[in-house]
Automatic annotation (TrEMBL):
Residues 1-22 form the signal peptide. It is a multi-pass membrane protein. Keywords: Cell outer membrane, Membrane, Receptor, Signal, TonB box, Transmembrane, Transmembrane beta strand, Transport. Residues 43-144 form the TonB-dependent receptor plug domain. It is found in: Cell outer membrane. This is TonB-dependent receptor. Gene3D superfamilies: TonB-dependent receptor, beta-barrel domain (2.40.170.20), TonB-dependent receptor, plug domain (2.170.130.10).
């Protein structure tokens, strides 16, 4: 009977693999990546896993701010409501954001003012994956990916109800937030529920929003408020042969855009996820996994008076199927299929305005394989992804449909030349289809005050990446060094020509919008990262020092826009019994490597953060009381990767206090 159940479940999953109802792999976690079993083994695919107290201390109002201090990661810095991670100087559609291994299906890659539709407050773990292995999860992930894991579909049964909850308040923005998560089971049924609510006002800044403008705001940044809440329900049926489960989520976000227009965005997303895994479906295979997600996303950009300007809609269905096999002649790995259908538009909500992006349907189908084998002292890995992407504008006959055949491939080796030390070398090829907005934009974008013009004749991006890594993974003292070089043919970037236009794109000296074109050129990006740590997991004193840099240039066109500054920093910590504390210092150098159409040099800054916590047992639960000080020196911080760096400083000195419980 057990074998028949496994066979029947495998047949159901195989049926889901058809283009009309395909699926996706189990949670894409760095620790289960075929190239390594843990973070210390990620020499081929440099990674960071945030979890536990470390994650809780870094939670912010946006995903970009939460991760902006990690090695090789900066943030887009578009106020408190919208900030997306930037990895090694690459942003937008080149960085894939996942929720439990599936795309978040928002429109945050379109523009920096769009929030990521994933909530960090309810996350159990956040993973950052850089390098060639990220290409296996999407041809667009040239720069890497971020995976937010919240366990909404349980994979194991809980012996008793467990959970976590947190309340916090903040001084600089009058933050009031709370989050919770609960897990339990009854018989073979496991369930999960989580939710959060956050409210912040305009945040405090050290001086003027724009020092070069005497009429600019002082003391607080106008239109930097946020209002967000979400609720997720999930459940699974779990047996010895595996599990099958589902989850639903609703997320609502209302946040200000800190530009002169003081516009704001109302966002809503409803999402359904299905997940299943069959253990040992056939002889020689470890598991057959399926995931499917369908998302209904929309947001409206409104004026300060609440008048709707543009409606953004994104309806998507994504599926992924993965078959993991045991070692065959020493080779172990995964085979997979993936599909995605998306209907996206950014249409005018008012008369007399052009549509920003017409209704466009996109379809993609992909197959991929990743394998690894120990050859002598070298762990060899290889991956290949083939993909077809088609974009079809609807209702505008003059715009051509485009189709792109893409491939990604990677080859690498990890040499553990002595116990605890390893060296890795990897080479990857990747191709990315231009995004819908890069092809078909032709209208105003209120929040960025630009009139975006796409190019329907764009060619696919072609990237070649070489990476070298060295790492010490054992002992109290550990270190790692990564160096990379990335050459991108047909790199897509936006640039302004200094012309002001009205809502229909007509030039006018007193018009509101700057004309911005999507263009292509060859780009070269190189950089390095280094980290040295002492006693990161034990009691007593701990320390960490780090540095990262990334530089990008367009061939015959100067620097890439929005380049990250060179950063250095150190962390000092102390743990003893119930007490835990740390001080973190991040120094960013002046960033004067500007693109030809940029004119603001970002000054250097030093950001100092403190945190202190005390944990106690109370009625069978663990209570953690915490206080944090952010930007203790009250520095006027301008992030070089923000398009609003000259007029939107980061928050000044502020304090956060709260209590967290787990049971």
């Amino acid at each position: 009977m057990s074998y028949q159940l496994r066979l029947a479940a495998a047949a159901v999953l195989s049926a889901f693999a058809c283009p009309t109802f395909a699926e996706t792999i189990s949670t894409v976690t760095v620790t289960s990546n075929p190239l390594g079993k843990g973070e210390d083994m990620q020499v081929l695919t440099p990674a960071k896993v945030l979890a536990g107290p470390e994650l809780r201390n870094k939670i912010s109002t946006s995903l970009g701010d939460t991760l902006g201090g990690e090695l090789g990661v900066s943030a887009s810095g578009f106020g408190a409501g919208a900030s997306r991670p930037i990895i090694r100087g690459l942003e937008g559609p080149r960085i894939k954001i996942l929720q439990n291994g599936m795309g978040v299906a928002d429109v945050s890659s379109l523009s920096n003012d769009h929030a990521v539709a994933s909530e960090s407050a309810t996350a159990q773990q956040i993973e950052i994956l850089r390098g060639p292995a990220a290409l296996l999860y999407g041809s667009g992930a040239i720069g890497g990916l971020v995976n937010v894991i919240d366990g909404r579909i349980p994979a194991t049964l809980s012996k008793q109800v467990s959970g976590e909850a947190e309340l916090r308040v903040g001084s600089g923005n009058q933050e009031k937030s709370g989050s919770f998560g609960l897990d339990g089971s009854s018989g073979a049924l496991a369930w999960h529920i989580d939710g959060n609510a956050r409210q912040t006002d305009n945040y405090a800044i050290p001086g003027k929003a724009n020092p070069g403008n005497p009429d600019t705001a002082r003391g607080r940044l106008p239109s930097s408020f946020t209002r967000e809440h979400s609720l997720t329900l999930g459940g699974s049926y779990i047996q010895k042969w595996g599990y099958v489960g589902a989850a639903v989520q609703t997320l609502n976000d209302h946040y200000g855009i800190p530009t002169a227009e003081k516009s704001f965005i109302d966002m809503r997303q409803n999402r359904l996820d299905l997940d299943s895994k069959v253990l040992a479906p056939w002889a020689g295979f470890e598991s057959l996994s399926m995931k499917l997600s369908t998302t209904d996303y929309q947001h409206t950009e409104k004026t300060e008076q609440g008048i709707a300007n543009t409606n953004f809609k994104n309806q998507s269905t994504e599926g992924r199927l993965v078959l993991n096999h045991h070692a065959w002649q020493g080779w172990q790995g995964s085979w997979g299929m993936q599909f995605e259908t998306v209907k996206f538009s950014a249409l005018s909500a008012a008369t007399g305005r052009a549509d920003t992006v017409p209704v466009t349907k996109s379809n993609s189908v992909a197959a991929f394989v990743v394998e690894q084998k120990q050859i002598g002292e070298v762990l060899t890995s290889a991956g290949l992804r083939l993909e077809n992407v088609k974009r079809t504008p609807e209702a505008i006959a003059s715009l051509p449909a485009r189709q792109f055949d893409l491939y990604s491939a990677s080859l690498g080796g990890l040499w553990q030349f002595t116990p605890g030390y390893a060296a890795g070398l990897s080479y990857s090829l990747a191709q990315r289809a231009p995004a819908t907005e890069e092809l078909y934009s032709n209208g105003p974008h209120e929040s960025t005050a630009t009139f975006d013009i796409g190019n329907p004749n764009m060619q696919k991006e072609k990237s070649r990446n070489l990476e070298l890594s060295l790492q010490k993974t054992n002992g109290l003292v550990r270190w790692k060094i990564n160096a990379f070089y990335n050459q991108v043919q047909n790199y897509v970037y936006g640039h302004t020509d200094g012309v002001k236009v009205d809502e229909e794109g007509n030039p006018a000296d007193d018009a509101e919008f700057s004309r911005r074109y999507w263009s292509q050129a060859r780009a070269n990006i190189h950089g390095a990262e280094a980290e040295l740590s002492f006693n990161q997991t034990g009691e007593g004193f701990s320390a960490r020092a780090f540095a990262d840099m990334s530089r990008g240039r367009l061939e015959n066109a100067g620097n890439l826009p929005l380049q990250p500054a060179i950063r250095t920093g150190f962390d000092l910590g102390y743990r003893e019994g119930a007490w835990r504390g740390s001080v973190k210092v991040l120094h960013a150098q002046k960033q004067d490597r500007l693109a030809s159409f940029e004119n603001y040099v970002t000054p250097s800054y030093t950001k100092v953060d403190l945190d202190l916590s005390y944990t106690q047992l109370y009625s069978g639960a663990q209570l953690t009381w915490f206080v944090m000080a952010k930007n203790l020196l009250n520095q006027d911080i301008r992030i070089s990767t923000s398009v609003l760096r000259d007029s939107v400083p980061q928050p000044g000195r502020h304090f956060i206090a709260g209590v967290r419980t787990s049971f």
